[in-house]
Amino acid sequence: MKGDEILKTKVGSTYHWVTNGEPHAIRRREILNKYGDEVKKLYGYDTKTAWQVLSVVLAQFIMAYAVRGWSWGVVAILSYVVSGTLNQNLFCAQHEISHCLAFKKPSHNKLLALVANMPLVVPVAVKFREYHHDHHLFLGVDGGDVDLPTVLESTWIRGLGMKLLYGFVYLVVYGVRPLLVRPKQAHMGDVVNWILVMGTNAAVLYFWGIKSLVYLFAGSILGGGIHPLAGHLIAEHYMFEPGQETYSYYGPLNALSYNVGYHNEHHDFPQIPQTRLHKLRKIAPEYYENLYQHTSWTWVLYKFFTDPNMGPWSRMHRMARIGEEKANAQYITGQCRYGTKMDVAGMDQESTATSAQVMQEKNSKVTNGHVTRASSRKASKHIRSDSAIENYAMNN
């Protein structure tokens, strides 16, 4: 469903709709205007990420081998504590690698993503990369940003019991939702991804047994559900401060998640590797220190589950990624902090249709949310930068 269709639904009319454009593109321009030379020195990649990923993959397979002869009770505990942590670490690695921030060549990053996917049991590397670029390009735009919960989720996930169930299978929902909301055509990369991961599963089952495979699979599900490290999935964009769209966390769990907590900084400059995001905050403190920030991902989960005013509907929505000129100016005047809320009650059908048409026209610049082969070649030297892809999409 697109924004104008969702706005007409009962639950959609209660969403926090904004008229400013994608906030990080706006803040990126503002920061570059002031600190361009300093910020651009942070661009690039960092191979330390690759070594960390390979170490976690090795550790996970060593653990999978070790548990093959242990009791089911021990396997269950380790699946949550150890496998949940390590596999969520590898899921966060997919996020970092999808921006080509581990190696200079995109092909090397894609290979690393496949290796990192091997212990996760479910093939995610290829499609995550494609859908995650959509998330950056169309943040908050229904039909474009598949990270947004659906109307069905917002309608049915109410009350503590349903929220806990939702949280338990959150990573499953997170993975299936894009396939339903914004289906993409399968290609050879998907075939390779599936063969490698399913082949790994078969080898683990054949040589080490069912306990080893359960240990890995349970780690993927549990580590992406009600688990401290999975708190980042809720913390990043669910609205804890009315009007603020993205949230950062600067606590110790960043060490286990490739600094995914620096989420405002990452969305502003996805071409900066995770090991340098803290430097961006030091260069432009006035754009980050005034923002609401999380101090605990565990508290984020507790708040989400227990607060009746929070749920899948607690996200900011927009009709079009470019926004209205007046609203964008107001966002900049406010130091790029709060979005400009839409007057839903006073918005007539004509203006709603116009906004939706703008979104469709801008979406048409990109083939189903990701660049075509031709545009990919033209943007190849900047492939790790979503902003480079965005600039190409908007200007060609």
What does this 3D model show about the protein?
There is one protein chain. The model is unreliable at 348-356 and 358-396 (pLDDT under 50). The chain is built from 19 helices and 4 strands. The strands form 2 sheets. It has a two-stranded parallel ribbon with strand order 1-4. A two-stranded parallel ribbon has the order 2-3. The chain has helices at 3-7, 23-40, 48-66, 72-97, 106-117, 125-137, 151-156, 159-168, 170-181, 188-207, 210-223, 231-235, 263-268, 277-283, 297-306, 325-333, 349-363, 373-378, 386-395; strands at 16-18, 248-249, 293-294, 316-318. The two termini are 26 Å apart. α3 packs across α11, α4 (72-97) runs antiparallel to α5 (106-117) and α8 (159-168) crosses α15. It has 396 residues and is mostly helical. The longest helix is centred in the first third of the chain and has 26 residues, at 72-97.
